[in-house]
Amino acid sequence: MDTVLGIDLPTWWFLLIGALISGYGILDGFDLGAGALHLFFRKEQSRRIALNAIGPVWDGNEVWLVIGAGSLFAAFPLVYGTILSVFYLPFMLFLVAIIFRGISIEFRSKEKMKWWHQLWDISYCVSSTVISLLLGLVLGNLIQGIPLNANHEFVGRLRDFFNPYAILIAVTVLSLFMMHGAMYLLMKTEDRLYAKLTIIANNTSKFFILCFMATSMATLIYVPHMTAIFKAYPELFALGIAAVLIVLNIRRSIEKRQYRRGFISSSVTTALLLILFAMGLYPNLVLSNIDPKGSISIYEAASSDGSLRTMLLFAAIGMPLVATYTVFMFWTFRGKVKLEEHSY
Amino acid sequence: MDNVELLSRIQFAFTIAFHYIYPPLSIGLGVCLVIMEGLYLKTKDKVYEELTRFWVRIFALIFGIGVATGIVMEFEFGTNWATYSRYVGDIFGSALAAEGIFAFALESAFLGILLFGWNKVSPRVHFMATILVALGSIFSALWIVVANSWQQTPSGYRIEGTGMQARAIVTDFWAMVFNPSSVERYSHVLIGALLAGSFLVLSVSAWYILKKKYLVHAEAAFRIALWVAAISALGQLFTGSKSAEVVTKYQPAKLAAMEGHFEKSAPGDMYLIGWVNAKEQKTTGLKIPGGLSFLVHHDVNAPIPGLNSIKPENRPTAVNFVFQTYHLMISIGMLLIGLTLLGLYLLYRKKLFQTRWLMSVFVFSVLLPQIGNQVGWYTAEVGRQPWVVYGLLRTSDALSQAVKAEHVLASLIMFTFIYVMLFVLFLYLLNKKIQHGPDVISDDETSSRMNPSLSSLISE
């Protein structure tokens, strides 16, 4: 099999898509979280500041979803088709939420009426919450595995997706994003809204730690295949410990009011949790919980070596560019939010 | 055709038709914005700055809906067309991923600066952001049309596996990108987009001129957009005939459907208007005998293979539909050429802005390129049936196996409801922005002072 720097091409793409999904979780994670917190801000002025804190960057953040999904389509088309068609209705709901979220941000400032603002505030908050929950729901089901027969055909029912473990993961993702979003907003705001956010950051981080503990316990007890790799390579247990330390560091940063540090910690937490998930999964992309032959491995799902190699070159050229735009954007709009004529 | 197939096709057609209103507008408007802001930097005339700011606000509205509805398209390949996704992932997927990395990232990142960066970056950096957003949208269209063109005229691939496990594998990446129809179809789509955007500017400006509001701004914008529109309309004649030649060579069934040509092999007529009776295999209407043969072979007697020379199961079924959409597209193209040339002539005679009936025509003309783009797209896509990948994969075989008809029906109803609501809101907010007009910060004296050298350059 073709390798680049000693790693085979499907594994490269497994890593790259993992990185793209982590990038998406970190970037869109904070603006989704800010959206989910939106209705906690009572004053019109506060809501506008919160919205404008993500205003110039949320579109760029969403690009990571588009690139991640496009890469999954290109590199592992079998998995792309399988996951999306199996989770048909959840993804349709996800798309509706994406549409509503985008237009809520865009439309809110276009009219002066109070009811108009309230309508789009609710739509923005609900859609952000629903997107976070659905991402978690799909993730939770992928961790447990889904019923695929030996031909990779789905033999389950829609309502099976709403199981307690998946719901727990959904809530955990939402709590992570809300905490992450609160810390982002703390970096962008001052005065009253800042004071309010310190309380929100405190509460959401406590809530997240509860969810984190519950998820860890549930995974250890009910999803043993995710932890099997630690038995084979005990040194990897260090990653699990790192995750715990980083999570504790979020609390420590919040108590010391070092929100930038807290934000970096919650970013790292997002990435680490996804790395732990990827390690439990590899070399599979989708696990079957009824027949091991039904699981889809990266080698089965991969596109041709030629295509993977060309796209790897594209990624090597394109991703540094995307990273540069992202940094340039955040640098241009650095500092606390000031409302002006172009604001939402 | 079972229900899942029918519903999935309706859903895809509906969502793409709706999406296809917005990206062409952003592309054309993006180019107009680059010209407006470029003129501002060159002349320092405040009118151009105010114009740019005004049109950037409209651009943002259009772009926002374009992105929201575009993400739907990307996911629908996987949700509704899983077998198709597996079959073409190697090819279509890589073009889609390239679009994300090289185009969409560029436009989305710099859109933030375009909208919110007025006081954060220097005018030159802002202008650069405008150019990058416009380029991003142009590249976006490139990759999407390349992916679609591969479906129309596949090349640079081999087929691996058989039956439902078969899939297309890239053997030559650049042959895949520059497949036989990419260049012709891309230039045709891109010019269609320039027409859509420039006619929006023409329409709004003409309305201001009729209402005697923002006259200086409106006339300046009208001149810019008229040039873009006129050059595009003439260019479309060229790319259109090139596209017809490609269809002749690679998609004979589509060509035959476009002109309702049934005979196995005979010179093809060109209809100006007509009606196809597919059952009796008869096409009636006003025609130029041998016109089609002349268009594509430059010889009125050159035989064209008709629908009867193609196996019945490989023929497009909606022949009259393809015929009508194709002819509507051509008529609109001709109308746009006439309209823009007349506009330029009157501009040269310094009578354009006083010709009120023509200004009224321009107000409504915004619909023409939109209809033209839509029907052109239908001609291309319906004419390709029953294939989703021409000659390789049938639409009926491309579906998701795991999806049930009632789920597709539910999502279709949901999209219809949301898109109708979205369209009403879009029109409402667009109208509101137009009513509001550009914010005039400059006083009357400066706004009436157009740069003299420039006004002589573009006449009147």
From TrEMBL, chain A:
Segments passing through the bilayer: 12-41, 86-103, 124-146, 166-186, 207-226, 232-250, 262-282, 311-333
Pfam families reported in the protein's UniProt record: Cyt_bd_oxida_II
Keyword Coiled coil: no
Keyword Transport: yes
GO terms, biological process: aerobic electron transport chain
Bilayer topology annotation: Multi-pass membrane protein
Swiss-Prot/TrEMBL keywords: Cell membrane, Electron transport, Heme, Iron, Membrane, Metal-binding, Transmembrane, Transmembrane helix, Transport
Subcellular location: Cell membrane
GO CC terms, sorted: cytochrome complex; plasma membrane
Gene Ontology molecular function, alphabetical: electron transfer activity; metal ion binding; oxidoreductase activity, acting on diphenols and related substances as donors, oxygen as acceptor
Family, as annotated: Belongs to the cytochrome ubiquinol oxidase subunit 2 family.
Protein name: Cytochrome d ubiquinol oxidase subunit II
Source organism of this protein record: Spirosoma foliorum
UniProtKB/TrEMBL annotation, chain B:
Annotated GO MF terms: electron transfer activity; heme binding; metal ion binding; oxidoreductase activity, acting on diphenols and related substances as donors, oxygen as acceptor
Membrane-traversing stretches: 20-42, 54-75, 95-118, 125-146, 186-208, 220-238, 326-348, 355-372, 408-430
InterPro entries: Cyt-d_ubiquinol_oxidase_su_1 (IPR002585)
Gene Ontology terms describing biological process: aerobic electron transport chain
Keywords assigned: Cell inner membrane, Cell membrane, Electron transport, Heme, Iron, Membrane, Metal-binding, Transmembrane, Transmembrane helix, Transport
Primary localization class, coarse: membrane
UniProt key word Transmembrane: yes
Compartments, record wording: Cell inner membrane
Coiled coil: none
Topological type in the membrane: Multi-pass membrane protein
Cellular component terms per the entry's GO annotation: cytochrome complex; plasma membrane
Family: Belongs to the cytochrome ubiquinol oxidase subunit 1 family.
Entry-linked PANTHER family: CYTOCHROME BD-I UBIQUINOL OXIDASE SUBUNIT 1, CYTOCHROME D UBIQUINOL OXIDASE
Name by which UniProt lists this protein: Cytochrome ubiquinol oxidase subunit I
Species annotation: Spirosoma foliorum
